[in-house]
Design brief:
Blueprint (H helix, E strand, L loop, with lengths): L2 H13 L2 H8 L3 H15 L4 E4 L2 E4 L1 H25 L7 E8 H18 L3 E8 L1 H10 L4 E5 L7 E16 L11 E2 H6 L3 E2 L6 H11 L8 E2 L3 H9 L5 E3 L5 H5 L3 E4 L1 E2 L3 E10 L6 H19 L6 E3 L1
Parallel strand pairs: 3-4, 3-5, 7-12, 8-9
Antiparallel strand pairs: 1-2, 5-13, 6-10, 6-11, 6-13, 6-14
Helix pairs in contact: 1-2, 1-4, 5-11
Protein name: LysR family transcriptional regulator
Family: Belongs to the LysR transcriptional regulatory family.
Pfam families: HTH_1 (PF00126), LysR_substrate (PF03466)
């Protein structure tokens, strides 16, 4: 198996056809077809379904595509680590952010990276927490912001902030009428709209509830932050989230966020890297910058509900 075969295969999948991939790669289509056939023979599996409309990955092809992407990224990172300067780091760095964190951290970090490290290409990807952990293990992302759930031993972790979760509902909703705070029991008794278990916030809520002898019930599960916000604005229920994803709605008075007491709920936000795949100079620079940006956001109170660790 050769690296060029991996590059060819990834290009075919990305462009959806052999002809378009051949044009982009500047390779004759018969040669591309031959390399793909050799790859499939070596793997003993069909990777692509071919049709007049283009190509689609088989189940085996989808699995191989993920690994091929990770391998090619690690090769590019290895080349970058050898050539780049520690004083002027350059190259590409991919940082994964959970949906509920990106609203607070993404734009400030991107702006800081462009100002301080113009030769670094910072790629931000927004994903479910579970997906980010898998991508970090495989090397598809260099860094990821995750939540300390006691299962981060495969990673090198740097604590960023302790982030408070609040009871959030539409302004004027009966769920918040006459209240300046709610107990956890009162919050769990409401019609809750929550992300699914694969989101980092949901396991934390379930864990704190169990410790208090309580449980969630009658939950509407919505995994899209945009749809979840629409459901809250329609007064279909309330949610338990950090403030950052709904900050704009709170600032314009469309939503309210009440502190939760007896007990309060918070989560530890950490920056993670792989223990097995070393960071390039560019990756290390972005890691340090992310810590500094998080600290600045806490000191300026821009990241509401977050306490610097």
């Amino acid at each position: 198996m050769e690296l060029r075969q991996l590059r060819y295969f990834v290009a075919i999948v990305d462009h959806g056809s052999l002809s378009r991939a051949a044009t982009v790669l500047h390779v004759a289509q018969p040669a591309l077809t031959q390399q793909l056939r050799q790859l499939e023979e070596e793997l003993g599996a069909q990777l692509l379904h071919r049709s007049a409309q283009g190509v689609l990955s088989t189940d085996a092809g989808k699995v191989f595509y993920e690994h091929a992407q990770a391998i090619l990224k690690q090769v590019a990172d290895a080349k970058s680590a050898v050539t780049q300067s520690a004083e002027r780091p350059s190259g590409s760095v991919t940082l994964g952010l959970p949906h509920s964190i990106s609203g607070a951290l993404a734009l400030p970090l991107l702006s800081a990276a462009r100002a301080q490290f113009p030769e670094i290409t910072l790629q931000l990807t927004e994903e479910l927490t579970g997906n980010l952990a898998e991508q970090l293990k495989s090397g598809r992302v260099n860094l990821a912001v995750l939540f300390d759930d006691g299962q981060l031993s495969p990673f090198v972790c740097t604590p960023l902030v302790e982030e408070e979760l609040r009871f959030i509902c539409r302004a004027g909703s009966s769920w918040a009428e006459g209240r300046t705070s709610v107990t956890l029991e009162q919050a769990l008794a409401a019609q809750l709209i929550l992300p699914g278990p694969q989101h980092g916030v949901r396991p934390r809520i379930e864990s704190v509830a169990r410790s208090a002898g309580l449980a969630t019930a009658n939950v509407i599960e919505i995994n899209s932050i945009a749809i979840l916000k629409s459901a809250i604005l329609a007064d279909m229920g309330a949610t338990i989230l950090p403030v950052a994803p709904v900050l704009a709605e709170i600032e314009r008075g469309a939503m309210v966020a009440l502190p939760i007491e007896q007990p309060a709920i918070s989560r530890t936000v950490v920056l993670c890297g792989s223990k097995n795949i070393p960071l390039t100079n560019a990756g290390a620079a972005v890691s340090r910058l992310a810590c500094q940006v998080a600290a600045d956001l806490c000191h300026s109170h821009y990241w509401l509900g977050a306490r610097l660790l």
